[in-house]
Design brief:
Length: about 60
């Protein structure tokens, strides 16, 4: 299988952005971030996992 060897990029990759709580609150205030879909974990904005049907049924049974 052929292998392509290239020269490295002439510029460094962008640094990883670590978000603060204040920055996230500002994004929510300006409606750029939906707090129901994302959460801040260790400086990273993480998309929340949607709840499946079995999860919702067990949750409703637990509450009732």
């Amino acid at each position: 299988m052929p292998t392509v060897v290239g020269t490295p990029a002439p510029y460094p990759p962008p640094a990883h952005k670590l978000w603060t709580r204040a920055e996230c609150e500002r994004l929510v205030e300006t409606h750029l971030l939906d707090p129901d879909r994302y959460e801040l974990i260790g400086g990273d904005l993480v998309l929340k996992v949607s709840k499946s049907y079995p999860h919702m049924v067990s949750l409703l049974r637990l509450i009732a």
